[in-house]
Design goal:
149 residues, alpha/beta, Glutaredoxin, globular
Protein backbone atom coordinates (compact mmCIF):
# COMPACT_ATOMS: atom_id res chain seq x y z
CA UNK A 1 0.00 0.00 0.00
CA UNK A 2 1.32 3.41 -0.92
CA UNK A 3 0.99 5.99 1.85
CA UNK A 4 -1.26 8.98 1.27
CA UNK A 5 -2.28 12.10 3.17
CA UNK A 6 -4.86 11.10 5.77
CA UNK A 7 -3.22 7.71 6.46
CA UNK A 8 -1.83 6.96 9.92
CA UNK A 9 1.93 7.41 10.01
CA UNK A 10 3.72 4.04 10.15
CA UNK A 11 4.88 3.28 13.68
CA UNK A 12 8.58 3.56 12.84
CA UNK A 13 11.51 2.98 15.16
CA UNK A 14 15.17 3.59 14.42
CA UNK A 15 18.59 4.37 15.88
CA UNK A 16 19.72 8.00 15.80
CA UNK A 17 23.29 9.29 15.59
CA UNK A 18 24.02 8.89 19.33
CA UNK A 19 22.89 5.25 19.41
CA UNK A 20 19.55 5.96 21.10
CA UNK A 21 16.30 4.61 19.67
CA UNK A 22 13.59 6.98 18.47
CA UNK A 23 10.06 6.08 17.40
CA UNK A 24 6.81 7.70 16.33
CA UNK A 25 5.50 7.58 19.91
CA UNK A 26 8.30 10.00 20.95
CA UNK A 27 6.49 12.68 18.93
CA UNK A 28 2.96 12.09 20.28
CA UNK A 29 1.17 15.43 20.60
CA UNK A 30 3.66 17.15 18.27
CA UNK A 31 3.72 17.77 14.56
CA UNK A 32 6.63 16.11 12.78
CA UNK A 33 8.65 16.84 9.66
CA UNK A 34 10.04 13.41 8.75
CA UNK A 35 12.40 13.83 5.82
CA UNK A 36 14.07 11.02 3.92
CA UNK A 37 17.23 11.83 1.98
CA UNK A 38 19.78 9.70 0.09
CA UNK A 39 23.19 10.52 1.61
CA UNK A 40 24.96 12.75 4.13
CA UNK A 41 27.21 15.55 2.88
CA UNK A 42 26.16 15.50 -0.77
CA UNK A 43 25.06 18.74 -2.49
CA UNK A 44 21.28 18.20 -2.54
CA UNK A 45 21.08 16.57 0.87
CA UNK A 46 23.26 19.27 2.43
CA UNK A 47 21.13 22.05 0.86
CA UNK A 48 17.95 20.41 2.16
CA UNK A 49 19.29 19.80 5.68
CA UNK A 50 20.77 23.31 5.93
CA UNK A 51 17.51 24.91 4.76
CA UNK A 52 15.68 23.01 7.52
CA UNK A 53 18.40 24.10 9.98
CA UNK A 54 18.12 27.75 8.92
CA UNK A 55 14.34 27.69 9.39
CA UNK A 56 14.29 25.38 12.42
CA UNK A 57 13.06 28.02 14.87
CA UNK A 58 10.17 28.93 12.55
CA UNK A 59 9.28 25.26 12.17
CA UNK A 60 9.35 24.86 15.96
CA UNK A 61 7.09 27.92 16.37
CA UNK A 62 4.63 26.19 14.03
CA UNK A 63 4.73 23.17 16.38
CA UNK A 64 7.01 20.93 14.28
CA UNK A 65 9.79 18.63 15.41
CA UNK A 66 12.24 17.66 12.63
CA UNK A 67 13.76 14.22 12.06
CA UNK A 68 15.90 13.12 9.12
CA UNK A 69 16.36 9.57 7.80
CA UNK A 70 19.05 8.19 5.51
CA UNK A 71 20.89 4.86 5.09
CA UNK A 72 24.14 6.37 6.44
CA UNK A 73 25.49 5.04 9.74
CA UNK A 74 25.63 6.86 13.09
CA UNK A 75 29.28 7.98 12.73
CA UNK A 76 28.58 9.56 9.34
CA UNK A 77 25.50 11.27 10.79
CA UNK A 78 27.55 12.70 13.68
CA UNK A 79 30.08 14.19 11.21
CA UNK A 80 27.25 15.63 9.08
CA UNK A 81 25.49 17.15 12.12
CA UNK A 82 28.73 18.64 13.47
CA UNK A 83 29.93 19.97 10.10
CA UNK A 84 26.65 21.80 9.40
CA UNK A 85 25.49 22.44 12.98
CA UNK A 86 22.20 20.61 12.49
CA UNK A 87 19.86 21.05 15.50
CA UNK A 88 17.81 17.87 14.92
CA UNK A 89 18.39 14.12 15.02
CA UNK A 90 19.06 11.80 12.08
CA UNK A 91 18.02 8.15 11.95
CA UNK A 92 20.75 5.77 10.74
CA UNK A 93 18.55 3.48 8.63
CA UNK A 94 21.34 1.13 7.55
CA UNK A 95 18.99 -1.81 6.99
CA UNK A 96 16.48 0.41 5.11
CA UNK A 97 13.63 -0.78 7.36
CA UNK A 98 12.26 2.71 8.05
CA UNK A 99 12.60 3.68 4.37
CA UNK A 100 10.75 0.51 3.40
CA UNK A 101 7.92 1.24 5.88
CA UNK A 102 7.36 4.56 4.10
CA UNK A 103 7.80 3.19 0.58
CA UNK A 104 10.81 5.38 -0.22
CA UNK A 105 13.39 2.58 -0.70
CA UNK A 106 13.03 2.27 -4.46
CA UNK A 107 14.78 1.20 -7.63
CA UNK A 108 16.62 4.13 -9.17
CA UNK A 109 18.62 4.50 -12.35
CA UNK A 110 21.72 6.52 -13.17
CA UNK A 111 23.61 6.33 -16.44
CA UNK A 112 21.61 3.22 -17.33
CA UNK A 113 22.62 1.42 -14.13
CA UNK A 114 19.79 0.34 -11.84
CA UNK A 115 20.26 0.33 -8.05
CA UNK A 116 18.23 0.64 -4.87
CA UNK A 117 18.17 3.97 -3.06
CA UNK A 118 16.13 6.55 -1.18
CA UNK A 119 13.50 8.58 -3.01
CA UNK A 120 13.87 12.05 -1.46
CA UNK A 121 10.50 12.50 0.26
CA UNK A 122 9.13 14.41 3.25
CA UNK A 123 6.15 13.35 5.35
CA UNK A 124 4.32 15.90 7.49
CA UNK A 125 2.62 14.25 10.45
CA UNK A 126 0.08 15.90 12.75
CA UNK A 127 -0.25 15.68 16.54
CA UNK A 128 -2.50 12.62 16.25
CA UNK A 129 -0.01 10.67 14.11
CA UNK A 130 -1.80 11.19 10.79
CA UNK A 131 0.09 12.07 7.61
CA UNK A 132 -1.15 15.51 6.53
CA UNK A 133 1.08 15.95 3.49
CA UNK A 134 3.66 14.06 1.44
CA UNK A 135 6.21 16.16 -0.43
CA UNK A 136 7.83 14.05 -3.13
CA UNK A 137 9.09 16.88 -5.33
CA UNK A 138 11.48 18.40 -2.81
CA UNK A 139 13.05 21.77 -3.60
CA UNK A 140 16.24 21.16 -1.60
CA UNK A 141 17.26 24.82 -1.31
CA UNK A 142 13.76 26.00 -0.30
CA UNK A 143 12.30 22.98 1.46
CA UNK A 144 11.09 24.86 4.55
CA UNK A 145 8.91 27.12 2.41
CA UNK A 146 7.32 23.97 0.90
CA UNK A 147 6.54 22.77 4.44
CA UNK A 148 5.36 26.10 5.84
CA UNK A 149 3.65 26.93 2.52
Amino acid sequence: MQLQAGNPCPNFSGIIQNGNRVSLSDFAGKKLVLYFYPKDDTPGCTAESCDLRDNYKTLQKQGYAVLGVSPDGPKKHIKFIEKYNLPFDLIADEDHSVCEQFGVWVEKSMYGRKYMGVARTTFLVDEKGLITEIIDKVDTANHSSQILG
